[in-house]
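INTERNAL AUDIT FORM
Audit reference: QA-55
Scope: verify that the stored structure record matches its stored sequence.
Auditor: D.O.
Record contents follow.
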Amino acid sequence: MTKKNSKIISWATTIGMVLIAVGVLMPLLGYSIEVYRWIFSAGALIALVGRLMNRYDGESLRVKRLYRIEVWSSIFFCVAAFFMFYPYGAGRDWFAFILAGGMILVYTSIMIPRTIAKERKQAKK
């Protein structure tokens, strides 16, 4: 993957995550506009495409696995987008999937740099 493609994918993922945050905050802050569903759904889809395109080219199997786990967080966000539009579900099903995806993102955002640093340290020995 070229450096230019990597930057585009990184920006797309970031924009998707910002749209997800805006889509979550709008109903929580009391905005009654129904646009938040579409904003969140667009962000979830953009984040999913960005995560699918982002791949780790290194040798570490654990880091590759962590990148795949990041894809699952975006899948959870897409499921949450589905439940935002699903009329027969409970009122906050979408929020449970957002929390699950967020927890996965917190875990991977801590573990990826930590694992890379640990393996670099071991490689120097």
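Auditor finding: record pair retrieved intact. The two ends are 29 Å apart (CA to CA).
Action required: none
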